[in-house]
Amino acid sequence: MDQLNEPGNPRNSLSSMGVLGIKENISVQIPEEVMEMMKPFRPSESNYRNVTKRLELDMNMGLDPAHRDKACVKMFPSYVSKVPSGKEKGQFMALDLGGTNYRILLVTLKGNNAPPEIIESTYAIPEIKMSGPGEALFDFIAETINDFLKSKKIPDKTISLGFTFSFPCNQKGLDVGILTRWTKGFSATNVEGKNVVELLGVALKKLNLKVSCKALVNDTVGTLASCSFEHPDCAIGLIVGTGSNACYIEDLSKVLTVDKTALMKNAKFIIINTEWGAFGENGTLEDIRTKYDRAMDKNSLHPGKQIFEKLISGMYLGEIVRLVLVELIEKKLLFKGNLPDAMRKPYSFLTKYMSDCERDPPHLHYSTEYMLRNELLVNTIDSLDCKIIRYCCEIVARRAAYLAGSAIAVLINKMNRPTVTIGVDGSLFRHHPSFAANMNAIIKQFKNPKCEFRLKLSEDGSGKGAAAIVAAHSF
């Protein structure tokens, strides 16, 4: 296997079966010059296998205090050493902050593996709060918590909260997390290097709210916990949305970077928040990156950071495709060489457009044409234009799915369990029509053949999981 499942390859026959068992529908021969431009997005099997070897090495370094400083993948202990069993009872709050929109939830756990009762509201963070003083950001969040309590008529009593905070944190305990760096467009000042639980607590105290944050969890950890309600063998939590990250259950004996005095008594395992988005910051992914990846990275908010995340997450994939399309237009291979004004703007080609393009039937382009005419205001479109755009979207999305799947295979092999459920959340996984299938295919290719696995969409998201973790650690 040299090139993994190339859509549009003229050597493939109509409806041929790709090397990973994914059915392809080739309706037209894509121009050779376009295929040549996209070649760097089609790594070989050996390239992907090398990625898994480097990632495993980096993960092992992250677990070892003697080498952790040199590791890009920091493998932060989450201090979660008990996953929900479904027997937990009580009423808890959750704050799920991972992007410009965040959720506040009231979660009532009924025990006996009964589905939890969830009341929630979604709030949007103004851009000025994302980039202004950190104190103002947390004051704003506390005000919305106050609004939630009042609007839902929640009794004025002390309530424990689980805080899903989807940014890299070095945790010192279940309720102590030091923000190492902002990602996903946030840059609020005077927060990096601080305990975000304490910052939230100060903001809540200003409003005299009887809400106490008992656990800080990454969204991957919350996703794992949420999925474990129905699937006790869930041992990996994965996010593939605006950003990307994963966590997994590790034997405590293999983790040398944890303060065991901050764990529950008789703990035998701990969930590790890998923070794999930083993988490649030391240059180990240069054989995978293209000139378009580098151009996108150079103009991003944090150049040179979160290299792996920038190859696979929804915040960046659309921009990578836009850069490709702009060059195709400049070479007169698309739109007869006419660059629409809308496409001159960075991030104007949204990642959701990639899903729309692939969702179209192979011979029809309803969504693609609508997007081009109404969103990007392209005046002249022909059928070949639509096919080329779909081809480029497929190639970029497929590489992202293969990279994410390769990394999941590393975790599966690392745990060496007979069965593993992977709880997954995130808009890219939820909405892209082929992402899950492509991930599934390469995991099968790279995992230990003795292990059975399944990808399971984590219902109700990481907020429910955060509340359940508070409950699990209360007993």
What does this entry look like structurally?
By secondary structure, the protein is α/β, with parallel strands linked by helices. It folds into 2 domains: 1-71 and 231-458, Hexokinase, domain 1, CATH 3.40.367; 77-230 and 460-472, Nucleotidyltransferase, domain 5, CATH 3.30.420. The chain has 15 helices and 13 strands. It has helices at 32-38, 45-63, 127-131, 134-151, 196-206, 219-228, 291-298, 307-312, 314-330, 351-359, 366-375, 383-415, 427-431, 435-446, 461-472, and strands spanning 76-77, 89-97, 101-110, 117-124, 159-165, 169-173, 176-179, 211-217, 234-240, 244-251, 269-273, 419-425, 452-457. A 6-stranded mixed beta sheet has the order 1-11-10-9-12-13, sandwiched between helices. Strands 4-3-2-5-8 form a 5-stranded mixed beta sheet. Strands 6-7 form a two-stranded antiparallel ribbon. β9 (234-240) and β10 (244-251) form a beta hairpin.
Key terms:
single chain; 475 residues; alpha/beta; Hexokinase, domain 1; Nucleotidyltransferase, domain 5; 2 domains; six-stranded mixed sheet; 15 helices; disordered N terminus; ATP-binding; Hexokinase_N; ATP binding
Can I get a quick summary?
With 475 residues, this protein is α/β, with parallel strands linked by helices. Helix content is 38%, strand content 18%.
